[in-house]
Design a protein that fits this description.
Helix content is 37%, strand content 21%. By secondary structure, it is an alpha/beta fold.
Length: 298
């Protein structure tokens, strides 16, 4: 079993791959909980011991150190933290500094490219931040946009203005959405929703004009369902897109490792009449793999 983790700014989402199949495990809000408490809540009752763990981490270095230490103690394995590359998996990264692209955005593109076999596509990730990334038909990353997500937009209104007091998320979800609000709460809910919708739809229109072809939109992220009823572009909803990209990466690297093992030449046995000794001053040859920097070129 290969354990997969999408560690975002607000939530942890996980899944696993076993016998070639993908299965979503669940999600949990990070809030202010200590990381080890989150890990216990997610995996204390895990039935099988994972042989690998692959992580897309945008939760920071402190979270990464906590996760690595906990996983090593729990299962005796070291999590892998693959990074975006200049070119891999059939995708050309459009960033001037390829590793600056968020690893979650990179693997969302990896998964999206497998869902849309031909033509241009656009990934809209509606999380704490809203990100939009596009691939043309040759799978060249055209770049992306970053904007506040719904919660950040609403919180900035509450902090930066007088007279706007927002209830908990449950109250926001219950506020009716109409073209125009009839009270402060519905005005904030509708205004922030339409801001996001306008951005998504305008980007898709501009991409279509620039590329001269339709662009297939795919939407993901925890706030995606808030936008879906208002989007005329009818994007494909893929709630586990980052995890699906990690799953594809995990299967591919496992397959390549198996192929490398099978093709490696067998060592010739030493002649029976010769006694082979290893000096204490001569270290045995070993292949060291820094799984944190695994790079697979397509």
């Amino acid at each position: 079993m290969i354990l997969l983790l999408d560690a975002g700014n607000s939530r942890l989402k996980w899944a696993w791959v076993a016998n070639g199949g993908f299965r979503f495990g669940g999600a949990i809000e990070r809030a202010d909980q200590p990381p080890r408490e989150l890990f216990r809540a997610l995996w204390t009752d895990l039935e099988s011991v994972p042989e690998r763990m692959v992580v897309a981490n945008v939760a920071g270095d402190s979270f990464r150190r906590s996760l690595t230490a906990w996983v090593r103690r729990r299962w005796g394995i070291t999590p892998e933290y693959p990074r975006p590359q200049a070119q891999a998996f059939g995708i050309v990264n459009g960033y001037r500094n390829p590793e600056q692209l968020g690893v979650d955005r990179w693997f969302a593109l990896v998964a999206a490219a497998r869902k849309v076999k031909k033509g241009a596509l656009c990934v809209i990730d509606c999380g704490t931040a809203m990100t939009i990334d596009a691939l043309d038909g040759s799978r060249r990353h055209l770049g992306g946009l970053i904007a506040p997500g719904l919660r950040l937009m609403r919180e900035s209104l509450a902090r930066g203005t007088r007279g706007i007091e927002l209830p908990e998320d449950a109250g926001l979800e219950e506020a009716a959405v109409a073209p125009l609000g009839r009270d402060t709460l519905s005005g904030v809910v509708g205004g922030t929703l339409y801001a996001g919708v306008a951005m998504i739809e305008r980007v898709l229109e501009d991409l279509k004009e620039d590329l001269g072809e339709p662009v297939r939109p795919i939407i993901t992220g925890g706030e995606a369902e808030d936008f879906l009823p208002l989007l005329k572009s009818r994007p494909q909803h893929a709630p586990y897109l980052v995890l699906e990209g990690l799953a594809w990466y995990a299967r591919r690297t496992a397959r390549e490792k198996e192929q490398a093992t099978e093709s490696a030449p067998a060592e010739a046995p030493a002649p029976a009449s010769v006694e082979t000794a290893v000096s204490e001053e001569t270290p045995l040859a070993a292949e060291t793999v820094d799984e944190e920097h695994v790079k697979v070129q397509a």
